[in-house]
Amino acid sequence: IEIGSLCGGSALILAGALAEGSQITLIDLCDRGVTDKLEASMAYLRDREGFSVSLIKAPSQAPETLAQVAAAVGTCGRAGLIHVDGCHHWQTVLADFGSYLPFLAPCGIMLFHDVVAPGGVHKAWEIIREEARQAGLETRVVGGENWQHDKWATGIGYLALPAQQGRDGDGALG
Question: Which of 64, 70, 97, 112 has the most CB atoms within 10 Å of its CB?
């Protein structure tokens, strides 16, 4: 699951961590005039890499979006990888975290883009990281050391669930 796909570049990279034939669900408003690039990325993932790819053109928090995501993850009801890179307001990042965490499989990974640069994602990441610490979960930040000089180096926050955590876990997180 990817929230905020823009041109599909992150989806292309993250697909390398997925098993062949995996379902990839992209969520984006598609309101920035790059839909053709996103469609090309989706076609590449489908046609050349063998993934099942779907695009939900709607706000990530809309009830119908969450229902479509639930249908997309299928009978297991879980995703092994969730990438949050949608709206960068801290309240929205926290809402995406809370809404999509139940879809994360045990041993799954949730990534947050832009956690180092000052702003909404950084603020949300600090809250998420503290909740995760209190729940005994692993978090870390990869990259972002040079964000002041490189607008693309803004860090990836990494949250990993253990085998017993997830939708049927104790609910201590999210």
Answer: 112
Specify whether the CB–CB gap between 173 and 110 falls below 8 A: no
Locus of tokens 């990817």: 2
Q: What is the dihedral of CA 99, 103, 105, 111, to 10 degrees?
A: -50
What's the confidence (pLDDT) of residue 11?
96
Could you tell me if 116 and 147 are in contact, meaning their C-beta atoms sit under 8 angstroms apart? yes
Q: Evaluate whether 12 touches 45 at the Cβ level (below 8 Å).
A: yes
Q: Are 60 and 48 in contact (CB under 8 A)?
A: no
Contact yes or no for 158/111 (Cβ under 8 A): yes
Write the DSSP assignment of 60-93 as a string of letters: TT-HHHHHHHHHHTGGGT-EEEEEE-S---HHHH
pTM over 0.70: yes
